[in-house]
């Protein structure tokens, strides 16, 4: 699966913004990488060669007199200049560093026409290296051994009050950033959970490519098979089987209720259709009727459907076991005639 990052910003209730979702398809966006040597007008580069680094400009020095401060500053500037020159030999036009870059190196990068982005968070640097095809480096003595990242366009974008740097045309074109914005933290949490569930279903579908018809079709098929078996089963087991079939038919009922339709009428129509051997029929919530799931192209992941069924059955079995334990008569206490 391609890496996906979720930014939760602007969740203050005072902003009273309506919840909305924006996605950069085929691109990634980093939230904290907003300081560039080229300024707002220069925040746009095409055909970019990116050097991603985790290096420190400058050092901490203790002196015993103020007279030595000027000498140390000059020596430090020369050291910074030498490092910048080694970085520029890589033939790049964008330099991204996890650490601070400081003013003097930024001036040198700007003079050379190189966009310098500093103080990137570690997770953002890791993602950038992954999706741009580059690697994180900390030494610059051998440019021929360093793998640079590449992308077609870098630009600064505004989403509400938040500033992001947008990397598009990256090497891993299937990578993307999804930005969630909402008026409250609860809205953001709900959107993130829904998105996480969708990504988990997608991951399971990639691993197990088999699918089943959706819209309650699979549940009605299973309920019909269980009911037919219950009709041929003598004894109390038939009652449990009929209850299991009834539980399966609750799934189409919940689907119809969530869509705001008359669930009793729709489920009755769907059950009659399956009795007529229309085994591919399910609920079409776009029209509020039943329809052929094969023609509509409504499918669900087989692996997810299987796990939902197993988990529900295990949970019901566990509840029944707990009920039996609670209903069981307590064990009679026998006096202990052999105390320790």
UniProtKB/TrEMBL annotation:
It comes from Denticeps clupeoides. InterPro entries: Chap_CCT_beta (IPR012716), Chaperone_TCP-1 (IPR017998), Cpn60/GroEL/TCP-1 (IPR002423), GroEL-like_apical_dom_sf (IPR027409), GROEL-like_equatorial_sf (IPR027413), TCP-1-like_intermed_sf (IPR027410). Pfam families: Cpn60_TCP1. This is CCT-beta. The lineage of its organism: Eukaryota, Metazoa, Chordata, Craniata, Vertebrata. It comes from the Eukaryota. The gene is CCT2. The keyword Chaperone applies. It is found in: Cytoplasm. Keywords: ATP-binding, Chaperone, Cytoplasm, Nucleotide-binding. One of its GO terms (cellular component) is chaperonin-containing T-complex. Component of the chaperonin-containing T-complex (TRiC), a molecular chaperone complex that assists the folding of actin, tubulin and other proteins upon ATP hydrolysis. The TRiC complex mediates the folding of WRAP53/TCAB1, thereby regulating telomere maintenance. As part of the TRiC complex may play a role in the assembly of BBSome, a complex involved in ciliogenesis regulating transports vesicles to the cilia. One of its GO terms (molecular function) is ATP hydrolysis activity. Transmembrane segments: none annotated. NCBIfam families: chap_CCT_beta. The keyword ATP-binding applies. Belongs to the TCP-1 chaperonin family.
């Amino acid at each position: 699966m391609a890496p996906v990052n979720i930014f939760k910003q602007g969740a203050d209730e005072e902003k009273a913004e309506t919840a909305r979702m924006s996605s950069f398809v085929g691109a990634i966006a980093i939230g904290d990488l907003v300081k560039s040597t080229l300024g707002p007008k220069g925040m746009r580069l095409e055909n970019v060669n990116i050097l991603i680094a985790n290096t420190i400009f400058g050092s901490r020095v203790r002196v015993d007199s103020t007279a030595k401060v000027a000498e140390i500053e000059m020596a430090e500037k020369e050291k910074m200049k030498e490092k910048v020159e080694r970085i520029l030999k890589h033939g790049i036009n964008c330099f991204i560093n996890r650490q601070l870059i400081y003013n003097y190196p930024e001036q040198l990068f700007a003079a050379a026409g190189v966009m310098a982005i500093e103080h990137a968070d570690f997770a953002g640097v890791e993602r950038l290296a992954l999706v741009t095809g580059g690697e994180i480096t900390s030494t610059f003595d051998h440019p021929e051994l360093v793998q640079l990242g590449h992308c077609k366009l870098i630009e600064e974008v505004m989403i509400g009050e938040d500033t992001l740097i947008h990397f598009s045309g990256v090497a891993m074109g299937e990578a993307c950033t999804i930005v969630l914005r909402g008026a409250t933290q609860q809205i953001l949490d709900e959107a993130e959970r829904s998105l996480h569930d969708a990504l988990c279903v997608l991951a399971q579908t990639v691993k197990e490519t088999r699918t089943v018809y959706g819209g309650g079709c699979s549940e009605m098929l299973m309920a019909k098979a269980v009911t037919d078996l219950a009709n041929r089963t003598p004894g109390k087991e038939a009652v449990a089987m009929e209850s299991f079939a009834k539980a399966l038919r609750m799934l189409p009922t919940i689907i119809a209720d969530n869509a705001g339709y008359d669930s009793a009428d729709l489920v009755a129509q769907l059950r009659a259709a399956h009795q007529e051997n229309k085994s591919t029929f399910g609920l079409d919530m776009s029209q509020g009727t039943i329809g052929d799931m094969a023609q509509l192209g409504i499918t669900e992941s087989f692996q997810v459907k299987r796990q939902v069924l197993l988990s529900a059955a295990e949970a019901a079995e566990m509840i029944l076991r707990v009920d039996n334990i609670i209903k069981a008569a307590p064990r009679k206490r026998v006096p202990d005639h052999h105390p320790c």
